[in-house]
Amino acid sequence: MLNEELAGTLVLDKPIHGNITPNGTSASGDHDGRLAALASGSRTGKMEIIGQEGSGKLEFKSPSGMTINGDGHLVLAEVDNNRLQILTREFTHIRTIIGFREPRDVCFTKDKRYLITDNHKLIILDEEFHKVEVIGSNKSGKGRSQLK
Amino acid sequence: MFLDMFNNPTGITIDNDDDELIICDTNNDRLVIISRDFKWIRDINTGIETSPRYVCTRQNILYVTSGTKGCVLTFNKHTDQPMNTIPELTLGLTIDAPRSIRCVRDLLFVTSSLSKSIFVFTIDGEYRGELRHELFAKPIGILFIDDSLYVTDSDKHALFHFSGVLQ
User: Fold this and answer.
1) What is the pTM of this model?
2) How far is CA A100 from CA A14, A27, A79, A134, A140, in A?
């Protein structure tokens, strides 16, 4: 269920244009310096891999877009599990929201609404995941005036 | 009635400066801009066969990944006019099947689902390299929270968490 693998390191690779210059004088120089710490092969602070293929808690099928909600929890859209999964940032399962077709991305607005792109629709849910509005249908189209 | 509005919409972003929501209407080659009460405001055409996938915004610029062009398209969000392409076409560099895009600390991070990496550019489009991990199979979504980077991988069916990436 919860796999913590420490194999491998995230590295910054620059295969096309030579080496990073971490001490550049541009305004973004210090940021690049921080990235260059990766290029030099030093480990990131911590690295975890959560989940494996499946439909249970903390398992995933084609996870795609994700966001953070008002509780500071991670919200992941799973295209092939047709659901959202809500996790704490320590990767404790909070909730699973089912009933989608192929959710691809999710956002959380300051009005506490979830927006989910799903199939040919934009689904808007409230904080408790109750449906507020659905824009579009299960059939593709190129409307616009309908939305006025 | 809101029938038949979209054709495979994908990425969504929130523009808190203008209180607008921006949706990539991928197979209609456009961005759809709606208000925070979900009324249609306008479309921005992204160009023929651009397949806009994901979008982020910084100041007055929209950064949009093009699934078919292998690049990031930029638009001035006040005039809706296209601006430069990232990476510059002259570099001969393409982002193979780009997906999610985020702007953090004046850097753009773009997942390349086929290169199995995360491209890094400055906001002006200068290539800074690619973040790679040997276990990446098909990275799609990225999210930065504090000093953590989260990456969803749709072939590995997993969520990667890296801390200290931008410390």
Assistant:
1) 0.89
2) 39, 44, 9, 12, 16
